[in-house]
Specification:
161 residues; alpha/beta; 18% strand
Amino acid sequence: MKSKEYFMLQALKEAEKAYQKDEVPVGAIIVKDEKIIARGHNLKESKKNTLKHAEIIAIEKASKKLDAWRLEDCDIYVTMEPCPMCMGAIINSRIKNVYFGVPDEKAGACGSIVNLTEYKFNHIPQCEGGILKEDCKKILQKFFQELRERKKKSRGANIED
């Protein structure tokens, strides 16, 4: 049996793909019967589409692969706590378990800002955070530090002009 850490490492590979594309480095995978059936990473910037979160992309791919919108026997691993939009999609797709790395203190919907599992929806996934938390945190911190440095240089260049 593969561990939660093994699957989170696979989600981190997706986050790295987002990082390489200058996207916020969040990655997600969906697992059914110990097998990865779908992968996704953030593509909001490159696709110019608010909906292109890692989780939504992975859910779309899993639904296509299984030819079903119900993903009842599936788990999702995501490097950062899902936002309300993604958690809504997770609930509606009937995903069984949500495993995430780092909490999202600005938009988390598994307890950081709001806990959508506390509401009486027709399906309530189980949530567990903190899986490879430091690794998931590190790539996000690196991305945002580099982004701040680029913005600072850009502002400096504009002042000199």
